[in-house]
Write a structure and sequence with these properties.
Layout lengths: L3 E4 L5 H12 L3 E6 L2 H9 L3 E4 L5 H14 L6 E4 L5 E2 L7 H22 L1 H4 L4 E6 L12 H20 L5 E8 L2 E2 L7 E2 L17 E2 L4 H9 L6 E4 L1 H12 L2 H8 L3
Parallel strand pairs: 1-2, 1-4, 2-3, 4-6, 5-9, 6-7, 7-11, 8-10
Helix pairs in contact: 3-4, 4-6
Length: 257
């Protein structure tokens, strides 16, 4: 039986790369996008396109109903990949902007997962995988709002993993470092005259979106999926250094331009 997988944020980057790969591996891919034209493009590419705006509660509910109908209430996996970045000094971030950052990167993810979870629980198997970030491990100047949403996603993911223990549903995180996608181009800057820029050294460690595929495949298909999958040397390095160095030394490293 063809396994159904939902992927959010499929218009480009990691989501589109993952959707193409899983379709080739024999999955039925339900690909969500925010814009109508992107949903139509997903259908043309052989996916089941679903319109979804994670920042809109009604949109999430409607998308969940469409997904459950499309997979006949039997869903194997949910890849929570949709999200965006809000950059700027915290003193420039309004409450509304912070609420929107969390609404897309956490609240919508929570709502969608909650709606779709019964379609996994009823069959005693499934995978829930979420795209976090190296910014879910560390926070730096100008990226506090985005990092806070990813820190929260990490905590949410940990609690969900414990709550689903023994259910047959496995929960994992993918933690990419610098990936060559449109993410940086689409970042919302609170100070457009002083945009937060990625350090020049990051370009040396940037990988294409295909770098996440081994982690995603393992999380979906292994009998023993990992709890976390760092992707890129930056994520691996930060994971290692956080265990090794005191916070004051990490601060000094992270402040280097």
């Amino acid at each position: 039986m063809q396994k159904a997988v939902v992927i959010t944020g499929c218009s480009s980057g990691i989501g589109l790369t993952a959707a193409n790969d899983l379709l080739q591996r024999g999955y039925r891919v339900l690909a969500t996008c925010r814009k109508t034209e992107d949903v139509e493009r997903m259908n043309q590419l052989g996916f089941t396109g679903i319109q979804l705006d994670l920042n809109d509660e009604q949109s999430v509910e409607q998308a969940a109903r469409q997904i459950l109908a499309a997979c006949d209430n039997r869903l194997y996996a949910l890849f929570n990949n949709g999200g965006y970045g809000l950059y700027g000094p915290l003193q420039s971030v309004t409450r509304r902007q912070l609420e929107q950052q969390f609404a897309t990167n956490l609240f919508g993810t929570h709502q969608l997962t909650r709606c779709l979870l019964p379609a996994m629980l009823a069959h005693g198997e499934g995978r829930i995988i979420s795209t976090s970030s190296v910014m879910g491990l560390i926070s730096t100047a100008g990226r506090g709002a985005y990092a806070a949403s990813k820190y929260a996603l990490e905590a949410w993911n940990d609690a969900l993993r414990h709550e689903l223990h023994g259910s047959g549903i496995r929960v994992s995180l993918i933690e990419p470092g610098p990936i060559d996608t449109r993410f940086s181009d689409n970042v919302n800057q609170t100070q457009r005259d002083k945009p937060v820029q990625n350090p020049g050294i990051a370009a040396r460690f940037t990988l294409p979106a295909t770098a996440i595929l081994p982690a995603l495949r393992h999380a979906l298909e292994s009998h023993h999926p990992r709890l976390r999958y760092p992707v890129t040397l930056v994520s691996w390095g930060i994971t290692f250094l956080l265990r090794l160095l005191p916070a004051t030394i990490m601060d000094m490293i992270l402040r280097v331009k």
